[in-house]
Amino acid sequence: MARDKINLDIFWLKDKSLADLDNLPDPDILANEIIENMEASLASFKEIMVTINGNGEQ
């Protein structure tokens, strides 16, 4: 990690909609949204594998 341009600071990565932390959705709603996003991402990667390999198998 002795490279000049490595910086793991993510202070710039902020969601302005989370500025009011007292009005966040319930944890189960947030968890379900995360699961839905992850499942959609997985489905997209599977489609890419089908495109690359023709059948989705390696």
Which parts are unreliable, with pLDDT below 50 for 5 consecutive residues or more? none
Query: How many DSSP-defined strands?
Result: 0
Helix content: 40-55%
Number of helical regions: 1
Mean pLDDT: 80
Residue fraction in strands: under 5%
* Rg measurement, Å: 18 Å
Distance between the termini: 32 Å
- Major beta sheet, specifics? none
Global shape: flat
Alpha-beta classification: mainly alpha
SSE pattern: H
Question: Describe it for me?
Answer:
This protein has 58 residues and is an all-alpha fold. The protein is built from one helix and no strands. The longest helix is centred in the last third of the chain and has 27 residues. The chain starts with 26 loop residues before the first helix and ends in a 5-residue tail after the last helix.
Offer a few descriptive terms.
mainly alpha; single chain; 1 helix; 47% helix
Q: What is the structure about, briefly put?
A:
This protein is mostly helical and 58 residues long.
Give the helix/strand layout.
Layout: H1 27-53
